[in-house]
Amino acid sequence: MVLGILLSLILLTFIAYRGLSVILFAPLCALLAAITAGLPIMPTYTEFFMPRAVIYIKNFFPVFLLGAVFGKLMEENGCAKAIAKFVAEKLGPKHAIVAVGISTAFLTYGGVSMFVVPFAVYPFAYILFKTAGIPRRLIPGSICLGSFTFSMTAMPGSPQIQNMIPANYFGTTLYSAPVFGLIGAAIMCFASIGWMQWRQRKLMGAGEEFGRLDHRAPPDTEDESLAINPYLAMIPLFVVLIGNVVLTRVIQGWDHAVLGLVPAAPLAATKIPVANWALIISLVAAIFIAVIVGRRQFAAKKNLATALNAGAIGSLLAIMNTASEVGYGNVVSSLPGFESVKQALLGIDFGTPLVSEALVINVLAGITGSASGGMSIALEAMGQYYLEWGARVGIGPELLHRVAAMASGGFDSLPHNGAIITLLAICGMSHKESYPDCGMVSVVIPFATTFFLVAIWTLFGFTS
């Protein structure tokens, strides 16, 4: 029975690595595992796979949709580029790596999708690196530094989906365990900058320069008359950040009876999903502000409808990919063979659930090539166990939330990760040229940081 689960996991990993759609193949891999356990095909698909996928869509589709639309608007109205250019100009070519890292971190933490950020930042990264003569192969790693790491998972309040998912399983908010998160963010940030700067010195010391020029050079066709003031461009990001803080506190004070004011539904929540509602309202407000701030750009380019449609359509692929992986995880977790696997994983205690949680999420994120997918599978199967275990040993759900979010940002960025593949394509670099640095800043350093902090918190008995 365990063999069937392993075979299905290996097949799903291979499919993801080959770039085939997990929307199509995740249910097939789930049914393969079910067949080896002697379960019937159709009930497994309609009664185990689909319900969990639907629940995931119900919980997170608004965030995927609004986040994708907001990111696309910020790209099309020039706000994202204005912010990136502003940071780059202030720090200058000599500090190109830091400038790119700060730009991407600021955009990601401000709510712009990490899939959109590379498109906005790359043109200015290209110019900075070319001006300073820094090897071009370091551009993808510099973009990873800020967008695929601490701003996505460690920073309290991050509006990225990786910080949202644990809130639904642990009843927490996006600001959970701020001390743990801020220390982790600082370690990831400075360690990644240190690595990239060391690589710069080493490559340039060996005589490597910017490198080849090809069709990936960004075209210099920007209409300067449409350039937006960078301070004005930052307003939508602050709407997300400040709105999250204020609305989280406001909604926490609401009576849960408000849910009874609408007709009962099969998937209705019993408690107010504070993190979801706060982020949804903040993103809606930010979208309106982004349209107002960029109204001149949208009017000149006549691309408002295009941006809205592109964001909405793009969100469908993202949510369906992750929902299919969650449905797969629900099938696998229901199989008899998974119980022995789960007990083995839960046996990794060290007196705390944090080690087991971090390890399981890292492994599943690596297998699926998705931080959100791997974390959802893990928490769907074992989230309640971790809550109960934490309660027994005095570990609060807030700390479980932050460790889960940070763990999802480790092995997820292995070479078959979709965001990594997209980033390298945008930059015109190969895995051979640039993945070693991407892997260091988005896999090795986040993984090591998470387990280092878990060890410290466990050693000193910190519980939040």
Provide a descriptive summary of the structure in words:
The structure is a single chain. It is built from 21 helices and no strands. By secondary structure, the chain is mostly helical. The chain has one domain. It is 74% helix and 0% strand. It has helices at 2-17, 22-36, 41-76, 79-91, 96-109, 117-132, 139-147, 150-153, 161-170, 178-205, 230-233, 235-252, 274-293, 295-301, 304-333, 336-346, 353-368, 371-393, 397-408, 418-427, 431-460.
Write the layout of secondary structure elements.
Elements: H1 2-17, H2 22-36, H3 41-76, H4 79-91, H5 96-109, H6 117-132, H7 139-147, H8 150-153, H9 161-170, H10 178-205, H11 230-233, H12 235-252, H13 274-293, H14 295-301, H15 304-333, H16 336-346, H17 353-368, H18 371-393, H19 397-408, H20 418-427, H21 431-460
Helix pairs in contact: 1-2, 2-3, 2-15, 3-13, 3-15, 4-5, 4-6, 5-6, 5-7, 7-10, 7-20, 7-21, 9-18, 9-19, 10-19, 10-21, 12-13, 15-18, 17-18, 17-19, 17-21, 18-19
Summarize it.
The chain has 464 residues and is an all-alpha fold. It has helices at 2-17, 22-36, 41-76, 79-91, 96-109, 117-132, 139-147, 150-153, 161-170, 178-205, 230-233, 235-252, 274-293, 295-301, 304-333, 336-346, 353-368, 371-393, 397-408, 418-427, 431-460.
Give the key terms.
464 residues; mainly alpha; 74% helix; single chain; 0% strand
